[in-house]
Amino acid sequence: MDTTPNSLEDAANLVKVPQPTIERLSAYLQCVRGMRADGVPTASSTEIAQRTGINAAQFRKDLSYFGEFGTPGLGYDVADLEAHLSRIMGLDARHDVLLVGAGNLGSALLSYPGFPERGFHIVAAFDSEPQRVGQVLNGCTIYHIDDLAKVNSALNAQVGVIAVPRVAAQETVDKLVAAGVQAILNFAPVTILVRPGIVVRNVDLTSQLEVLSYYLSAQ
After folding, report:
1. What pTM was computed for the model?
2. What is the secondary structure of 146-214 as a DSSP string?
3. Do 164 and 194 fall within a single domain?
4. Is residue 150 part of a domain?
5. Same domain, 146 and 171
6. Which of 46, 142, 151, 197 has the smallest set of CB atoms within 10 Å of its CB?
7. Could you read off the pLDDT of 105-149 as tens digits, one per residue?
8. Domain count of the chain?
């Protein structure tokens, strides 16, 4: 019998899921997607560990928060495991996304095909530059940032992506939250403050390059 909860929220209601476990779920999902693409029908926890670099015991413990998976002696059906992980992470549903900042980075994000392939659809973009407002990029209309709340009252998107300069990041976040956004991906190189209940993930590309520089210099 499938005892997998219907969503990550359902699972969290049953038991407190550690943050590192939630972050590793994405690595497991990418792994099994790759296995499916390679034509692998079944896999053991050891094989998954070899591909992810996360030990097999940790993999089994992480999955145990969400139900029983796999068959002893046979391993995991890769297609079923992908479906379970997608459902646990809420990826079996469409997520509408608001993008704020339609400059070079924002334009690149609008054109990235990986978002819609995974169920994330940028349904509106916003900017403060008059020359960008009114343009349509990759089928997405760019509105003025002051119209964010009005536009989202019709769209009801709950995910926001920030691709603005650091000085505008906090104000942008405040506007997204006021418009009903509950989860934010922040590309601005600055720490932003939000009230409890709002989820923020930071992607600082410059910081990651600096870390790479350290490893190069240390060789």
Report:
1. 0.82
2. GGHHHHHHHH---EEEE-S-HHHHHHHHHHHHHTT--EEEE-SSS-----TT-EEEE--HHHHHHHHHH
3. yes
4. yes
5. yes
6. 197
7. 999 999 999 999 889 999 999 999 999 999 999 889 999 999 999
8. 2
